[in-house]
Structure formats: structure tokens, C-alpha cells
Amino acid sequence: MDPLVLKKLNEARHQRKACVLVTNLDNGKDRLVLEGHLVEGELGEAISKALLTGKSATVEINKVEFFLNAHLPPPRIVVIGAVHISQAMAPIAKMSGYDLEVIDPRSAFATEERFEGVSVSADWPEDVLEEKPLDPYCALATVTHDPKIDDFPIADALRRNCFYVGALGSRKTHGKRIERLLADGITQNQLDRIKAPIGLDIGAASPQEIAVAVMAEIIEAFRKRGLS
């Protein structure tokens, strides 16, 4: 591999940017295509498919074979609120191949004992997310019912174009949330991306059922996400 291409690939992976390493199997030449870079024609369609699925493949375009090696950042789920729902989400996320972490400044809830084997931060979301920023390969789920805790990460997730933003609460609660976020400079188009009430409508009642509904909605959003 061309050392310059390898350097660009490593930089993209470090910055959590999706890309496809395109190798011409006839002459061995490589090039790196970052997500969002336009490639026209059949090759561009094949690259878009690789970015969407994360699957590498060999394709033949105009009698030339290319190997498309897809590199996608691991999808990351950030849950705001160390509650029963997030406890139930953790094992489902792990089994589904998603990294999940919990943030809650309420130290009585955000404990390793309650979240064994899960990354838990007993700090304010704005402090944690400054050190480990959200990005388009992140899903955010807020489940505390406390605007002092939930509002900042929701606004941050919308501004950083997370592939999923969900918020627990009734429609009345969400209406008040919308008013606060509009006052904070979030646009209506951005607000329309919030999934509220959170989770697929499966009639979930218990925390465990709500966790299933939320995880299903996150997986759906990731698999159907638009690629700019």
C-alpha cells in the first residue's frame, strides 16, 4: 500500500471518519474515498453501498475489478441517565455490536456496581462530552427526565449530526423541551430529528421493554441512515 494512502487511512480511523480503500486489482493502485466525497457512476454506487453496510467486497466496473475495503467507526451509544432502562440497554447493545456508555452526574446512580462491565461517568454530560465528543457515528438517548442533565447533550448531538437522538418523556414534556432548545438556537429542522417519545411504538411498559424498543430504534436509524 502507498504510504501516503496508509497515513490518510490511519488519520480517518483515528478521527472516526468512515472511508473505503479502493484497490484496482488490475494494477494494484490504491485510493482512499472518505464518506461524503463524490465518486460518480457505478463505482460510486458500489462505494456508497459499502459505506452504508460496512461490508467489504470485490466489484467489477467496465471489466476492471476493484476491491472495496470498508472502514466504519464502531457505532457508539451514549445514554444520559443511569436508570433501569439504561441497565437493560447495556447487554442488548453489547450483543448487537454497539459500544454503550452511561453518563449521569448523580453519583448514587452512576456506579460500577449497577453497571458492571459498562463505561460509566458520574459527571455532567458537558464535561464528559468535551473530552470525548459526539460524532455522526454516535447515538444519544436521554432518559433522566431532568432538563438540567438532558438538554445540553441533546443540543450537542443535534449540532454534531448524531445518527440517532432520542429523548424519554411525554409529548407535553417534549413540547417544553422543544421550546427550550429553540431558545438555545437549535433549528426546527434539527429538532424534527429527535425521537420522542423514545423507542419504537411496540406498547412497551417495563424498563426492559422500553430498552428493547430504544435499541431497535437505534439499530433501525443506523442501518437506514442517510450518507451525505
CATH class of the largest domain: Alpha Beta
- As residue ranges, the low-confidence spans are none
**How much of the residues is beta strand, in percent?**
15-25%
Main sheet, how many strands, which sense, barrel? 5 strands, parallel
Biggest sheet strand line-up = 7-6-5-8-9
Strand tally: 9
Number of domains: 2
Continuous helix count: 8
Task: Give the CATH superfamily of the largest domain.
Answer: NAD(P)-binding Rossmann-like Domain
Structural features, described:
By secondary structure, this protein is α/β, with parallel strands linked by helices. The protein folds into 2 domains: 3-71, no CATH class; 76-223, NAD(P)-binding Rossmann-like Domain (Rossmann fold), CATH 3.40.50.720. Helices cover 40% and strands 20% of the residues. The protein has helices at 3-14, 41-53, 84-96, 125-131, 147-159, 171-183, 188-191, 207-223; strands at residues 19-24, 30-34, 57-61, 64-71, 76-80, 99-103, 119-121, 138-142, 164-167. Helix 3 links the parallel strand 5 (76-80) and strand 6 (99-103). The longest helix is centred in the C-terminal third of the chain and has 17 residues, at 207-223. The radius of gyration is 20 Å and the shape is elongated. The model has no long low-confidence stretch (mean pLDDT 93).
